[in-house]
User: What shape does this take?
Amino acid sequence: MFPFGFILTNIAMLPNRNYKSEEILAYELGYRFYPEKNFFLDIAGFYNNYHDLLDLETEDPFIDRNPFPRLVIPIRQKNEMFGHTYGTEISLKWKVTRRWKLSAGYTWLKLQLHSHLSTDRYKDRERSDPENQFHLRSYLNLPWNIEFDSALYYVDHIGRWDIPSYVRLDARLGWKPTKNMNVSIVLQNLLDDHHPEYDTEQGYVSTEVERSIYLKMTWQF
Assistant: This one.
């Protein structure tokens, strides 16, 4: 008997001699062209087929009394999961003027997973990545060797961890007083004081990206 009905519990990662490397068969079809001299566009579609994906399977718990009684929950690496992803990627670059360049990109992603064990928990993993992502970057070279760069990001919600969609804006003001020296002020996450961007399934508390500003100086030699 254990006092108050409590028992020490250990989670044990067990080896698997039959574990195999994950496999992927990837297909991609795209088209890139220059409708104008200063404009570049790339459109691609992809389909990836995955086999023998890594998965952690919980086996039947047991009592281990050496060196003291405790409940052991064994977890073993297996290759029980398979699935596929498909989607579209679009990217463009535009040299607006001699001093100003723009680039943008969009990604649409769908993930479908299956298991030989036929458990529903794999459906939750299908929502581990955002379905839509977009970014727009601007690079502006000003007089007196001054650079002003900015980037705008949109990331769709991540349903698995209930992370809402967000828009993020970063900016950088740089100056090159010499050929080898660069001084810059970087501002991140200007539109929000803090927001979550990702999480893990390892049980850790997720951190949030906060608004920040820092000074950076580099010297090349």
